[in-house]
Amino acid sequence: MTTDATVQNAATVTEEAVGLEPVALGNGRASAQTWKAFRREPLGMLALGVLILLTIVAIGAPLIAPYPPSYGDPVLAAPSLAHWFGTDSLGRDVFGEVVWGSQQSILVAVAASAIAIVVGTLIAVVGAYFQRLDGFISVLVDLTLSLPVLPLMILIAALVGPSTGTIILVVAAFSWPEVTRLVRSQALTVVRLPYVDAARLMTTSPLWIIVRHVVPAVTPVIVVSVVVTASRAVLSAAGLAFLGLGDPNVWSWGRILYEAQQSGAMSSAWWLTLFPSIAILLLVLSATLLSIAYNDARNPRSRRR
């Protein structure tokens, strides 16, 4: 009991001294305060609503629009009541393409960011806890971040072959260093705090300390990294698909742009590029605004203002 009280007191004092977010230390009341502050952010709530709407569209795509056929009629029809987003060069309904394309775009965003977050967080907390590994990890992250990402992504995707799995792995492979850099900076501070030193007196298991104390302390940074990495994954996947390196058997917003460019109708049929571009913009912008609003809401200084 005395040891537990000492650890709790050390955590409380440290939190007040360095200004760490209480939720990072497992305080449920702080989570409620963060959510309460987040609800006062109009742009954050709007961004959350847009993300929820896009997710509903992706899940309910079969109920919203039929799957785009191989061809249809009329060809290159402008937006109308019959075809809300117009038709493409093969007479397919662009609205259906955008709706079904949301599935692949969101899948890539979620899967690629999940892999990048797990790998990046694991490397960051291990390097922060075991100082002998931190120098090597720091050099590895800096070296990876200095690489020309887009050309390497194009090269790997072209060599392996276009598929959804390839895009997910390629995007994740070049996203984890940024996550590691963000989480590592916070983890280096956490492992030096008194309550972590007290935890070392309670157990000799580094795994228990990392899982029980270090990871919860960096959770707010991880949450922000998830949103930012997901938005970058959407842009990367759309860019690869626009270059013809996406999955040709699955609709995506990048594939709509690619086929518009291949048909030569990109400049004449404005609706072919407008609506998928708006969908990409909405997803990326809402994810960015959500991360900013959350970061402001979890900051005690912002809540006091």
UniProtKB/TrEMBL annotation:
Give a Gene Ontology cellular component term annotated to this protein.
plasma membrane
Family matches, as Gene3D superfamilies = MetI-like
Provide the transmembrane region boundaries.
43-65, 106-130, 207-228, 233-251, 271-295
Query: What PROSITE patterns does this protein's entry cite?
Result: ABC_TM1
Describe its membrane topology.
Multi-pass membrane protein
Q: Which GO terms describe its biological process?
A: transmembrane transport
Tell me yes or no: is Membrane among this UniProt entry's keywords: yes
- In which broad location class does this protein mainly occur, judging by the first location in its UniProt entry? membrane
Keywords in UniProt for this one?
Cell membrane, Membrane, Transmembrane, Transmembrane helix, Transport
Query: Residue ranges of the ABC transmembrane type-1 domain?
Result: 102-291
Pfam families, alphabetized: BPD_transp_1, OppC_N
Q: Where in the cell is it found?
A: Cell membrane
User: Which family, according to the similarity comment?
Assistant: Belongs to the binding-protein-dependent transport system permease family.
This chain belongs to which protein, by name?
Peptide/nickel transport system permease protein
